[in-house]
């Protein structure tokens, strides 16, 4: 799935170093979920719990990014900075688990230095919870979904 997401982002977006700016609730939601993912993965890796870290990465990549956010970008568009930002940092998070695939995708992004020598993504303070809650409520209002 990571390969397919990467191919989609590489073929439908233009390279940009602009910081991601959340314009919609979906944008704020995915960025908040991604911040939470970085926190969870770092916590698990620091405690040498690699299986839960991999499970969290899998859940985010498949269920949140691919199944929800990427699908919304096909309709809304204009998400190049957010998609590229998440892809870059997601590759860093996935790298300990799938080094050859992530390194290849990293090179396709046109990055100059190898992925293995890239710094771990910065983790923001946990102020993302309100945005996460607002994003869920808005999505349920706009698209009535039954809570799982």
CATH superfamily: Isoleucyl-tRNA Synthetase, Domain 1
Please report the total strand number as a whole number.
Answer: 0
CATH topology: Isoleucyl-tRNA Synthetase, Domain 1
Q: What is the CATH architecture term?
A: Orthogonal Bundle
Strand content: under 5%
In round numbers, the mean pLDDT is: 88
Number of helices: 6
Secondary-structure element sequence? Answer: HHHHHH
How is the topology of this model organized?
Blueprint lengths: L1 H11 L12 H22 L3 H27 L3 H15 L4 H10 L20 H14 L6
Outline the structure in words.
- This protein has 148 residues and is mostly helical.
- The chain has a single domain (2-11, 23-142), classed as Orthogonal Bundle (Isoleucyl-tRNA Synthetase, Domain 1), CATH 1.10.730.
- Helix content is 67%, strand content 0%.
- It is globular.
């Amino acid at each position: 799935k990571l390969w397919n997401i990467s191919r989609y982002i590489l073929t439908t977006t233009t390279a940009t170093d602009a910081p991601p700016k959340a314009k919609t609730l979906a944008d704020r939601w995915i960025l908040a979920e991604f911040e939470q993912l970085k926190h969870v993965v770092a916590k698990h890796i620091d405690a040498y719990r690699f299986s839960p870290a991999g499970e969290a990465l899998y859940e985010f990549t498949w269920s949140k990014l691919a199944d929800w956010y990427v699908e919304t970008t096909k309709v809304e568009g204009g998400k190049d900075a957010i998609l590229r930002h998440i892809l870059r940092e997601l590759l860093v998070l996935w790298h300990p688990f799938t080094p050859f695939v992530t390194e290849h995708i990293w090179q396709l992004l046109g990055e100059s230095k190898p992925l293995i020598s890239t710094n771990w993504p910065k983790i923001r303070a946990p102020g993302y919870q309100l945005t996460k809650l607002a994003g869920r409520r808005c999505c349920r209002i706009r698209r009535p979904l039954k809570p799982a």
